[in-house]
Design brief:
293 residues; 20% strand; alpha/beta; Rossmann fold; single chain; six-stranded parallel β-sheet; six-stranded mixed β-sheet
Length: 293
């Protein structure tokens, strides 16, 4: 457990991170926990720096006394070569989004996968996990697929428009989880897959404010399905709204965002975050953002 008299200085490195809600979430939780906690965005776009500058930023953060950094696009893979130690899960995923700076050493973690795992457990307790269809096998999709298989999904159908990437991801995950069956599929196969599935997980940009719409024909979604989205701006995506209207149990993208933030908070401070409290604050922040828009 961390000494609560200690102060914490944390940052978020990535492109376009200035509007991120993560700093406010972390700082509010730090306040409630009685910690001196300061979280600053380090925006590559505003600084005019490429993703390859992440190593130099890590060194600078160490010299300035930072306790750690969250890492987002485009640096989650680029940061790997600059780390002294990487957690086994992050190494398997080939991506790090949380780096602690301790005793001059950089230690990498991945809370994207653990954040989705905790979101699934808390937001859809008891969800049937025999067979799941996942749309999107990119960076976020990789972490979510890993979380689903860790949670016990027996058969995972990965669907992506990039057929080669999807096949590579399925083969890699099959190696990590030999007790499960992971298959690469195409969108054309969804009418065959959805009747066999217990749940649907969505990991593409469709549904974001800049990419409105739904990622599949909603007639394929049945009331018995559970549906999880990782898009959280807006929280109520068209997929979440339409699935809920059908009677599906749903998991909005805000739960993963909060889950990964709560895990990162614990890694940085040694103090367990209250995920329910963080979610309530997160929903306040999103609502204020939507009103302002």
């Amino acid at each position: 457990m961390s000494n609560r008299a200690e102060s914490f200085l944390v940052g978020l490195v990535g492109d376009g991170v200035t509007p991120s809600l993560t700093p406010a979430m972390h700082e509010r939780e730090g306040d409630v926990q009685g910690l001196r906690y300061l979280y600053r965005p380090i925006d590559l776009t505003e600084l005019g720096l490429p993703g390859e500058a992440v190593g130099e930023l890590l060194t600078g953060a160490q010299r300035l006394g930072f306790n750690g950094l969250n890492i987002t696009h485009p640096c989650k893979q680029l940061v790997l070569e600059h780390l002294d130690e990487i957690s086994p899960d992050a190494r398997r995923l080939g991506a790090v989004n949380t780096v602690t700076i301790r005793d001059g050493r950089f230690i990498g973690h991945n809370t994207d996968f653990s954040g989705f795992a905790s979101a699934l457990a808390s937001g859809l307790p008891g969800a049937k996990l025999d067979r799941v269809v996942q749309l999107g096998a990119g960076g976020a999709g990789s972490a979510v697929a890993y979380a689903l298989l860790t949670a016990g999904v027996r058969r995972l159908d990965l669907v992506d428009t990039d057929v080669a990437r999807c096949a590579d991801r399925a083969a890699e995950l099959s190696g990590f989880f030999p007790q499960s069956q992971v298959t690469a599929r195409t969108t054309a196969e969804l009418p065959e897959l959805m009747p066999l599935a217990d749940g649907l997980v969505h990991c593409t940009p469709v549904g974001m404010a800049a990419h409105p719409g739904v990622p599949l024909d909603m007639s394929l979604v049945e009331p018995r399905h559970w549906v999880a989205d990782i898009v959280y701006r807006p929280i109520e995506t068209e997929l979440v709204r339409e699935a809920r209207a059908k009677g599906c149990e749903v998991l909005d993208g805000g739960r993963m965002a909060v889950g990964q933030a709560a895990d990162a908070f614990r890694i940085f401070t040694g103090v367990k975050a209250d995920a329910d409290r963080m979610r309530a604050h997160f929903l306040e922040l999103v609502a204020a953002e939507e009103v302002a828009a």
